[in-house]
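User: Reviewer 2 asked us to show a designed sequence for the structure in our supplementary figure. I'm pasting the structure tokens here. Could you produce the per-position amino acids so we can include them in the response letter?
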């Protein structure tokens, strides 16, 4: 895998994940209490022995830069690296990235310096565990110009993805990006050719692109240089190349979830608590998910009832009930609280007992969840200060609401408390 360079697309402004992307790039959004979204593709690369990794981004990249610099440092005897390439304006390219393909085009000069055989293009907002070496092996065996990793998918979700038709040899013969209506119907195929059972094939009659590609180095360079008006892989580069190039489909059989929306992000995180075994597990000895080592103390739990939840390190939890929730690093929950079906992202810092007491005396709210509060079906971003006797339950069952001036949004019925927000004592949401 030394002849493969990985390029992780950090995405645009992350509008579908807003307000979690208000102060950070999409790949830097916290995941499962202690990780970040970027840790998934980077860890998959490392576990696949692909150690030359670039991350392309252009929005709010400071925290992403910081996380990568503190998390991934390879030995001086290795040429491995994980490096962020942020959008920049140059005399040749005075504009910001115009799309996924344009982002790669603007930094093609940097990628070509490595003299690799293939480019592995990845997305930064998917949850899955994959050995890319099998993917690349199939690419080489079929002498493909481009190989797309694909999954069978049902009709309900099909219109959100790039769909394709393939022949008996696995070659892509037709491609349509996010089709709707009659165009969607025309992309139905018998997915039993992928090896699915007749029952499964009936449930999932579409073949969807995962947004994961392997390109021959010279093919990617030619496509990008010869078609400067094409700025997106899924909408333009891939469909355009299907006729003249050997495009192959590689079936991925494991768990994969696009977590680019608030609802998908929320559901994917809480699904980690499912019993007896979740669809995705971080407990995999041979393929671990790496992240920043923080050297935090163990979590302290005092006389609490905790069921079907994941608790990160460094938390302090007092006399409360927690069910089907994820608690991020340094989460602080005071007595008599109830937290259900909720993701608490924790805190970037501790406040000492003296500081917390001083804040209370001054009428200010310490970081964490205050005494007697109830939180259900919510995402509470980092460093939030929730006062005493606060109720966050979406009492009026509102689907969408922008209450940024009050410190929260509602997306798909899920209350999202902003990073650094302050929710006053007795507030009812």
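Assistant: Here is a per-position design you can include in the supplement:
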């Amino acid at each position: 895998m030394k002849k493969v360079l990985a390029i992780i697309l950090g995405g645009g402004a992350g509008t579908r994940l807003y307000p979690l992307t208000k102060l950070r790039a999409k790949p830097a959004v916290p995941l499962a209490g202690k990780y970040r979204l970027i840790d998934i593709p980077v860890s998959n690369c490392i576990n696949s022995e692909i150690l030359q990794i670039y991350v392309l981004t252009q929005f709010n990249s400071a925290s992403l830069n910081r996380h990568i610099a503190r998390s991934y440092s390879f030995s001086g005897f290795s040429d491995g690296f994980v490096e962020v390439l942020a959008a920049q304006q140059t005399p040749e390219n005075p504009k910001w990235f115009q799309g996924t393909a344009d982002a790669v085009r603007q930094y093609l000069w940097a990628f070509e310096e490595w003299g690799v055989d293939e480019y592995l293009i990845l997305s930064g907002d998917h949850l899955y565990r994959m050995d890319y070496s099998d993917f690349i092996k199939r690419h080489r065996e079929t002498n493909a110009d481009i190989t797309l990793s694909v999954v069978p998918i049902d009709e309900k979700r099909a219109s959100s993805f790039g769909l394709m038709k393939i022949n008996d040899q696995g070659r892509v013969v037709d491609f349509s990006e996010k089709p709707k209506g009659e165009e969607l119907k025309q992309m139905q195929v018998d997915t039993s050719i992928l090896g699915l059972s007749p029952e499964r094939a009936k449930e999932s009659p579409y073949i969807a692109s995962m947004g994961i590609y392997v390109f021959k180095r010279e093919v990617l360079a030619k496509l990008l240089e010869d078609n400067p008006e094409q700025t997106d892989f899924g909408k333009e580069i891939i469909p355009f190349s299907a006729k003249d190039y050997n495009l192959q489909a590689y079936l991925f059989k494991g768990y994969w979830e696009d977590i680019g929306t608030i609802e998908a992000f929320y559901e994917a995180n809480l699904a980690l608590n499912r019993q007896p075994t979740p669809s995705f597990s971080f407990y995999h000895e041979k393929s671990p998910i790496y992240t920043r080592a923080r050297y935090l103390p163990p979590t302290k739990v005092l006389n609490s009832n905790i069921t079907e939840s994941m608790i990160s390190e460094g938390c302090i939890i007092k006399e409360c009930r927690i069910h089907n929730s994820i608690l991020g690093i340094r989460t602080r929950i005071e007595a008599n609280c109830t937290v259900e079906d909720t993701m608490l992202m924790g805190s970037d810092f501790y406040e000492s007992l003296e500081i917390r007491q001083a804040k209370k005396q001054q009428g200010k709210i310490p970081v964490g969840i205050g005494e007697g509060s109830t939180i259900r079906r919510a995402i509470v971003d980092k460093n939030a200060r929730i006062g005493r006797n606060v109720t966050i339950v979406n009492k009026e069952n509102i689907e969408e609401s922008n209450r940024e001036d009050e410190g929260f949004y509602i997306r798909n019925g899920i209350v999202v408390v902003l990073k650094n927000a302050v929710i006053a004592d007795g507030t009812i949401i």
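For the response letter, you might also mention the following. The mean pLDDT is 92. The two ends are 51 Å apart (CA to CA).
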